[in-house]
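**User:**
Make up any protein.

**Assistant:**
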Amino acid sequence: MRARDKAAVRALRSTLAALDNAEAAAVHEDELRGRALEESPAGAGATEVARRELTERGVEDVVRAEAAERLDAAAALTAPAHADRAAQLRAEAAVLLRLLDGTGGAEADPAAR
């Protein structure tokens, strides 16, 4: 497998996990406090909660945030010993940005700027 494919796999796996987390049902802090064990719901389906459904814009926001997180982390890795990791992070960000922009070309690659 080429290095570029590995970057895509890493980026897509972690972004899918981020999207999964973004769709998780919100838990309000007041629901977690002050409940005795015997007051908790019991039985089949007691913990089943409908997941949130992200809009297309919400998905784009999560993916852009994942790309920005990688670019910020790469920028923070200034030591020469971390150059490989910084390059990996920039490659992962480029994969995500190309998917969002639909270009598939080098113009979406932040390292090419």
Summary: DSSP finds four helices and no strands in the chain. The radius of gyration is 19 Å. The CA atoms of residues 97 and 103 lie 9 Å apart. Residues 105-113 have pLDDT under 50 and may be disordered.
